[in-house]
Amino acid sequence: MKLSPSVTIEQSETGLEFIKVASEFCDATIFLQGAQITEFTPTGKKPLLWVSQQEDYQEGKGVRGGIPICWPWFGVSQHEGWPAHGVARTGLWRAEQVKEEENSIYISLSLPMNQIDEKYWPHKTKLLVEFILSTSLEVRLTTTNLDSETLNFTQALHTYFPTPAIEETKVDGLQGSKYIEFGEGPFEQHDLVSFARETDMVYTQAQDTQRIITPDGIIEVSRENSRSCVLWNPWIDKSKRLSNFADDEYHVMLCLEAANVLEDSVELAPGDKHTLATSLRWV
Ligand code: TA6
Question: Which residues pair with 24 in a beta bridge?
């Protein structure tokens, strides 16, 4: 079904509905499940997002790649048996607006609160995600507190980036910040980050922009209202334990996530709203 000249709603072979953008400046795919963008490719350039070759696009399961929306908690829940990274990424979001301008396309989706089991989140909240697609991608996740009490949540835009070789990839822009890893730290980050082992760092006080330097080019990542920056590569052993992830795929991906996690959780007073955003582009 056509929503605008460059935007249609389609269905995957596994029955998942997605918004397909095929414009003169970019191609993109956004699944209604999780409002998860899984493809963003500026015209004439390489894809800016990575998805596992082993992804099978099943209902009720986040896609291994693109930008999973982690909300209202990040990581493993302290409640036994609750899903990792919250419940927004498996909920069925509703397309709200599609606006096609000359050089950009605006797409917004909201998560109906009846998509979230009250046992996980018994609060009145509006959750809206906005995608601004041009030759770069901007993603804005806004939480509005419609409740009568202050809300506290953690969150991440869990972006998976491509690289032809993780061993030849570095991240610039985290120097001078501190990170916690595997529950240890904080440690100082003095130099560019390189990868030679499992990496699962949560940075605080990092500057708002990082650059991922890969053999295919430099990806600039900006973060807004993000007090945490998560940097992840599963490396050899964890890759073998991950679902929908080939043993050797750690070679060709990394995650750099705009987030508010651990001590950086968000406190939202009644009636207030908070927007976490990230932007990505080839430099
Ligand atoms: O953001 C890094 C991380 O928390 C890793 O520890 C790893 O668990 C990754 O997220 C993927 O989580 P997922 O639940 O999508 O497999």
Answer: none
